[in-house]
Every structure is written in structure tokens, then in C-alpha cells.
Design goal:
- Keywords: Signal.
- The protein has 121 residues and is mainly beta.
- It has one domain.
- It is 11% helix and 55% strand.
- It has 1 helix and 10 strands; from the N terminus they run H-E-E-E-E-E-E-E-E-E-E.
- Strands 1, 2, 4, 5, 6 and 7 form a 6-stranded mixed beta sheet that branches.
- Strand 4 and strand 5 form a beta hairpin.
- It starts with a helix and ends in a 10-residue tail after the last strand.
Length: 121
């Protein structure tokens, strides 16, 4: 019983801290492994960053579509001053922007308002 209690306590400590969700807008975090949540009409997203070598931040975002139960994950590296905008598969009506300035990562969403070009990898 004691081993189980200790394991549960350690697991709870290891989980990232999650801030309250924001409706379509912007969230910002300046603390590594502190997860933040962003909610739009179409999806719920949780994201966090960790320092990676060469002064880069590795950002991990996991999202769940409103009509789908399969979580999807995206991992990207950001250097200071980097800013990238794109729509997520199945959510072409919303543009998400991931930006890093000094020691903070900002994630924002806004309506697409225009056509996207399809790209393949």
C-alpha cells in the first residue's frame, strides 16, 4: 500500500501544471514544463516547452478535436525570435501561431480568414 501511495504521489508531482483554458485567443508561458491550455470552437489544446540544446525550446502541443477522440501531437523547436503560423489538419478554419521571445512561448489562435495552400511532407 505504501509503495502505491508513493508511486501515485510521484506521478502527480511529475505531471505538468496546467493553467486554465482560454477561448480562442492567446496563452503565454515562461516556465518550462508548465502546460497551458487553449480552447477553440473546434478543439482543445495543451502545450508546454522544455529547453533543448543550443538555446532552443522544444514545444509540444497535444490537441483533441471536438468531434474526434484521437489525440494528436505536434513537436517543434523554437529559437528566440521564431514565429510560425499554420492550421492543424482538420481545423483549417483556425490559424495557430507559436512564437518565442526570449524566455517565453506564446500560442495564439484566430480565424483563418483566407485560403491555405496545401503542403505535403
Amino acid at each position: 500500500m505504501l509503495k502505491t501511495t508513493i508511486a501515485v504521489a510521484l506521478a502527480a508531482i511529475a505531471l505538468p501544471v496546467v493553467t486554465l483554458p482560454a477561448l480562442a485567443g492567446e496563452v503565454r508561458t515562461a516556465t518550462p514544463i508548465e502546460a497551458t491550455a487553449l480552447t477553440t470552437d473546434d478543439l482543445q489544446m495543451v502545450a508546454y516547452f522544455v529547453p533543448a540544446g543550443d538555446d532552443r525550446y522544444e514545444v509540444t502541443a497535444t490537441w483533441l478535436d471536438a468531434d474526434d477522440n484521437d489525440a494528436r501531437r505536434l513537436v517543434l523547436s523554437l529559437d528566440d525570435g521564431d514565429r510560425v503560423s499554420f492550421a492543424l489538419p482538420g481545423n483549417e478554419d483556425t490559424v495557430f501561431t507559436f512564437a518565442r521571445e526570449i524566455d517565453a512561448v506564446t500560442i495564439s489562435s484566430k480565424p483563418a480568414g483566407g485560403a491555405f495552400r496545401n503542403a505535403s511532407l
